[in-house]
Design brief:
By secondary structure, this protein is α/β, with parallel strands linked by helices. The protein has two domains: 177 residues, Diaminopimelate Epimerase, Chain A, domain 1 (Roll), CATH 3.10.310.50; 129 residues. The protein is rod-shaped, with a radius of gyration of 31 Å. The protein starts with a helix and ends with a helix.
Length: 325
């Protein structure tokens, strides 16, 4: 009874945060508990603020497992991509008892800055999740962890002051292992994935930027040449060149606008996640494709003008020869 009263108070406090989250698309909750150790109703209540925030929450408590089992379950539940990257909005709590006690909290890039600050996620694992596991009060351990994760997302600085881990030796010693190695491997994968998407973004931006700079110089050159078209070529050829140059100029404007739009969209995110960086990369790649098409149009204009100039020179030479004859 005391436990339920305590938890009812926690739930009531958490639900106060829900109105401010009403505009977020609600996340999903998956509970995997083949042993029936958890009170699913209380877990859903504890996860409610996170779900309102748009978090996809997964809770696992299994007899036998470990890192490989966790990855398999996340992949099967659609929270881990084949490339090893977690779904951006996911947060998962996983506990296994055999072959050795193992607990871990893992998450997607959307919550990276909040949960990795001061190693917040490990503090939550040791100080909120583990006490319940050690005393076989599994629902309380998971519920406290979910509640504190929400608090840390709201205020990542909550643990800026040092916090000592829970010094317990509980039933089965759950969480005596796990967490650390998995978290290290996860951070390494996250850092590698982040470096990869950042490099791809930089490369894509530099490529299109170089093309835009080159096109700017090319357009200045053809604008200068266009000043002499009327005195150099036939009227129909002047019209043709003008139409081609107008079309190319409009395409160049679109390229610059696309480049600017991609940059502005990226700047709206104070800390863009990998998916947002990848979207920006795709945007720059699209701008580069457009720029390459404009480049081909400019080359066609130069080729036509060169051809017309050669024809005009040949015509003048023919006239000169005729006069001399």
């Amino acid at each position: 009874m005391r436990y339920r009263i305590r938890w009812a108070i926690v739930v009531a406090l958490l639900l106060l945060a829900l109105p401010s989250l009403a505009l977020a698309q609600e996340g999903s909750l998956q509970i995997t508990d083949p042993g029936g150790r958890l009170d699913a109703t209380l877990i859903r209540s504890a996860a409610a603020p996170l779900l309102q925030r748009g978090v996809d929450v997964a809770v696992y408590i299994v007899d036998t497992g470990g890192e490989a089992d966790l990855d398999d379950r996340l992949r099967n539940d659609g929270l881990l991509n084949d490339d090893g990257l977690y779904w951006n909005n996911m947060i998962a709590i996983y506990v296994a008892f055999e072959p050795e006690p193992f607990s871990v909290i893992t998450y997607g890039d959307s919550w990276l800055s909040a949960l990795e600050r001061n190693d917040n996620v490990e503090i939550i694992r040791q100080n909120q999740l583990n006490p319940g596991l050690g005393s076989a009060n599994y629902t309380q351990g998971f519920a406290d962890a979910l509640a504190t994760i929400e608090q840390v997302i709201v205020d990542p600085a909550i643990y800026d002051e040092p916090v000592s881990p829970w010094p317990f030796v509980g039933v089965g010693g759950v969480a005596a292992v796990g967490g650390g190695a998995y978290a290290y491997n996860r951070r390494r994968r996250t850092q590698q994935a982040r470096a990869k998407v950042e490099q791809e973004l930089q490369t894509a931006r530099e490529r299109v930027s170089t093309l835009i700079t080159d096109l700017g110089m090319r357009f200045r050159a053809i604008d200068e040449k266009a000043k002499f078209d009327r005195v150099s070529y036939a009227a129909e050829d002047v019209t043709r060149l003008k139409q081609m140059q107008t079309q190319a100029s409009q395409g160049f404007i679109q390229v610059q606008e696309r480049f600017k739009t991609v940059a502005e969209q990226l700047e709206r995110h104070a800390q863009p996640n990998n998916e947002q960086l990848a979207q920006a990369t795709a945007g720059y790649d699209e701008a580069r494709t457009q720029a390459e098409q404009v480049h081909e149009q400019v080359q066609a204009i130069d080729a036509l003008r060169t051809k017309l100039t050669e024809e005009a020179n040949q015509a003048r030479e023919a006239i000169d020869r005729a006069k001399k004859a």
